[in-house]
C-alpha cells in the first residue's frame, strides 16, 4: 500500500487537519511541561532541500530529535541528485532506507514524482506552488490567539505566491473567507482560485482587502528563485506594504502574521512587526509544534 503523503493541504481531510492542529497544541504543552515523549525512536527523517531554510529545516530537525529519532540533511550539492541521478531512482533508494522524506524544491511536479516512487511518506517543505507546513503553524497560531477560524475574514496582501496558494487551499479546508490584494499580473494561480469558489475574492486594492479583516498576512515580494526581478518588484509592490495605516483598517483585535523571513521597509514596516497585533514569533515557534504533530500523524502507527 502506498503511504500517506503531505504535498498539499488537500491531502488531508478537514477533520484530519483539525485533529492535527489540536495535537500540535497538546504537544506544545507536553514539551513546555518538560515531559519526554519519544514515539519515533530509531526513525530517520531525510531532509532534501534545494532552497535555503531556517525555520522549516530547524523545526523538522528539532521535531524528529525531540521525538527520539534522527535526521539526515541532504543538499543536492552533496547527493547524486545534484549530478543528474533521476528523482524516481533517488526516491526508490532513499525511501527504502529512511522512514520519511521532507523536500523543499522549485517545481511542485518534482515532489509529486518523488512521492509517486517513494515507499515512505513525503512532506512538502515548500515548492514554488505551495507551502502546506506553514499553514499548519499559521492556523494553530490563529486558533491559540483568537479562537475559532471558521467564517473569519482573512486578508492576504502582496504577491500571489506559494504561501498565498496555501492560504487559498486552507480557506477551503478550514472554511474561512480570504480576500487577496495583489498588483495586476501577480494574482495567484487561476486554477486554484477557480476551484476555491466564492469564499475567495481577489482585488488590486489593499485597503479593500484589509478593511474589517480578522487576520492580515503578507510575505516577501520576491520569493526564492525570483531574485532577478526583485528590483522591479520593489516598485510594483510599493502600494502593498503592510504598514500601521493599512493595519488600522482591520478589526481592532486583528492579528498580523508573516511566514518570515521578513524584509522590514518592503512588504512590512518595522512598527507592524513589533506591534501588539503581530504574532509572528508565536507563529514561527509553532512551526516546531505543528511539524511534530505532522510527523506523529504520518509515522506513529
Ligand atoms: N517560513 C519558512 O518556511 O521559513 P524558512 O524559509 O526559514 O524555512
Ligand atoms: N514565498 C517565500 C516563502 C519563504 C518561506 C519563498 O518561497 O521564498
Task: Explain this structure.
There is one protein chain. The protein has helices at residues 14-32, 55-66, 87-97, 108-116, 132-146, 162-174, 190-196, 206-210, 230-236, 244-247, 270-273, 280-299; strands spanning 44-49, 70-74, 100-104, 122-124, 153-157, 177-181, 200-203, 215-218, 255-258. The protein is α/β, with parallel strands linked by helices and 301 residues long. The protein has 2 domains: 9-130 and 287-299, Aspartate/ornithine carbamoyltransferase (Rossmann fold), CATH 3.40.50; 134-283, Rossmann fold, CATH 3.40.50. Strands 7-6-5-8-9 form a 5-stranded parallel beta sheet. The protein has a 4-stranded parallel beta sheet with strand order 2-1-3-4, with helices on both faces. Helix 1 crosses helix 5 and helix 3 (87-97) crosses helix 4. The chain starts with 13 loop residues before the first helix and ends with a helix. The mean pLDDT is 97. It binds phosphoric acid mono(formamide)ester and norvaline. The site of phosphoric acid mono(formamide)ester has 8 residues, from helix 2.
Amino acid at each position: 500500500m502506498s503511504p500517506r503523503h503531505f504535498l498539499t493541504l488537500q491531502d488531508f481531510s478537514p477533520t484530519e487537519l483539525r485533529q492535527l492542529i489540536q495535537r500540535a497544541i497538546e504537544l506544545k504543552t507536553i514539551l513546555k511541561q518538560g515531559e519526554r515523549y519519544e514515539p519515533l525512536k530509531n526513525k530517520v527523517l531525510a531532509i532534501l532541500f534545494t532552497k535555503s531554510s531556517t525555520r522549516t529545516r530547524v523545526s523538522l530537525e528539532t521535531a524528529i530529535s525531540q521525538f527520539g529519532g534522527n535526521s539526515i540533511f541532504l543538499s543536492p550539492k552533496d547527493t547524486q541528485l545534484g549530478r543528474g541521478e533521476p528523482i524516481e531512482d533517488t526516491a526508490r533508494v532513499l525511501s527504502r532506507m529512511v522512514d520519511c522524506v521532507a523536500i523543499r524544491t522549485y517545481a511542485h511536479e518534482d515532489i509529486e514524482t518523488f512521492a509517486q516512487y517513494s515507499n515512505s511518506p513525503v512532506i512538502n517543505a515548500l515548492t514554488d506552488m505551495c507551502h502546506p507546513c506553514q499553514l499548519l503553524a499559521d492556523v494553530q497560531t490563529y486558533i491559540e490567539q483568537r479562537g475559532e477560524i471558521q467564517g473569519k475574514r482573512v486578508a492576504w496582501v502582496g504577491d500571489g505566491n506559494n504561501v498565498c496558494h496555501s492560504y487559498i487551499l486552507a480557506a477551503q479546508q478550514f472554511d474561512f473567507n480570504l480576500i487577496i490584494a495583489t498588483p495586476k499580473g501577480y494574482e495567484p494561480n487561476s486554477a486554484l482560485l477557480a476551484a476555491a469558489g466564492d469564499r475567495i475574492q481577489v482585488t488590486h486594492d489593499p485597503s479593500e482587502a484589509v478593511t474589517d479583516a480578522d487576520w492580515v498576512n503578507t510575505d516577501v515580494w520576491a520569493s526564492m528563485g525570483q531574485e532577478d526581478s526583485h528590483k522591479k518588484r520593489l516598485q510594483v509592490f510599493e502600494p502593498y506594504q503592510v504598514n500601521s495605516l493599512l493595519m488600522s483598517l482591520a478589526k481592532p483585535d486583528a492579528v498580523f502574521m508573516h511566514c518570515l523571513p521578513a524584509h522590514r521597509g518592503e512588504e512590512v514596516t518595522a512598527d507592524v512587526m513589533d506591534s501588539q497585533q503581530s504574532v509572528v514569533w508565536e507563529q514561527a515557534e509553532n512551526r516546531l509544534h505543528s511539524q511534530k504533530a505532522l510527523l506523529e500523524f504520518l509515522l506513529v502507527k
